[in-house]
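Q: Fold this one first, please.
A: Sequence and structure below.
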Amino acid sequence: MSMHFLSSFSIIKYHRKQFLGHLIAKFSTMAHPLVAVCQMTSTNDKGKNLQTVRELAERAKSRTACIAFFPEACDYLADNKKDIIAMAQPLNRSIISSYKEIAKANKIWLSLGGLHEALNDDKNRISNTHVVINSEGEIASIYRKIHLFDMNNKITGVRLMESDYVLAGQKIEPPISTPAGKLGLSICYDMRFPELSLSLRNMGAEILTYPSAFTYQTGAAHWEVLLRARAIETQCYVIAAAQTGTHNKKRVSWGHAMIIDPWGTIVAQCSEKTDMVLAEIDLNLLKQIRQNMPCENHRRTDIYPKIEPCNL
């Protein structure tokens, strides 16, 4: 074999390597961040619930997700007020330390929606608290649920009074920067109040998240339509982790954890079991939708009346 041929062959190999390297680099810069939305069936067994969170976070990381979203009550779901309060912990206790360890060990962000936070409250109440932990195992944001789910229907006999044991939050937290985009925090019942989602959008949110434990009946009727409405009206991604299945004799959750794009299209959805699904967050799509339909430019805040309470 001549030296000229070997030289030419080496040049071809070099240019091929350079081309492939350029192609890989191009596609890596074009790739959009992946997020994982998780679904589980919490019980009063805190150790088992924690293990489920750990396993789902590890699965999410193995699929290259940068954030894993978990549902309301991912720490536990008890069947009576006494245990709900007794099992709660302040944010500096072991359960948060365990979540921090999971995030740090897997180098993944965690959205933990609706943890039971013990408070120093004279009425023996707790907070329904959404905690976001970054990939270094540090708390990045804390939001306490401002809309409490109270239902005391004498006709149907259904009584679910969150305010019996939860102290309502008093603040909308500003969206936080994450590897997937600017994330606005809410919890479950908050999704029924578009004022909150629009406020978060106006504060810069690109993603809204609603970790939930929707009851089966209300979920069947309203879950999807509410989430899609929040995405469409804010032109944000919506990520809704969910509880699913039978937790105890008193409680069954709807499930159907999902991710919705800013056009209102469901791009990922869990099945009827403990599960995890992935979706890309394409902020270029978000910008395009907002440019093509610039609703915020048309919002008539100058003439909208102040919303006053309606007491029925």
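Q: Good. Now the second chain.
A: Here it is, same layout.
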Amino acid sequence: MLEILGKASSINVRKVLWTCAELGIAFEREDWGSGFQSTHTPGFTALNPNAMVPVIKDGDFVLWESNSIIRYLANQYDGQHLYPGQPRLRARVDQWLDWQATDLNGAWSYAFLSLVRHSPEHQDPAALASACERWTRNMQILDRQLQATGAYVSGEHFSLADIALGLSVNRWFETPLEHPEFPAVRAYYERLTERKGFVAHGRNGTP
């Protein structure tokens, strides 16, 4: 039985939960992270030296880093429909997975911590305005890509990239800032809502 260590409200844990739903993987989950068991204990940092969730244990195999985990699950549990083996198709999925983890995450971090987490260290008006502008600019990139594909971020078919980006789109809509009209992103959000895994672990009101 696959073990998932991490609280269900974590956006990165939810990537793993949604992937399990898409692949029909049975799992057991333990609450770790803020408000639950501390990830800074020696036992946890022996699994992940970064002291962050999620971590999975698949038998004697331990893995951390959410995008690496969902790639592994697709490879291990017959998920070629989510993560194709053909090099060019896989590269397109990887491109958007990596963009989500770097450019997009870097864009929304300050604004999310300021407007949702109400972090005292993230209340500088100029820094917040800059962060919102960067976030909006990245969402515009996503909107243009979705206009081009007319379906999912890497092309015609749903993939692992949509799991990572679908959760990021949920965070965009659930964060209280001005949302310019991006019709392709909105249509994409509604399209993802047709998937049970997204309803359970994505569009659940938890940004």
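Q: Anything worth noting on the second one?
A: The chain has eight helices and four strands.
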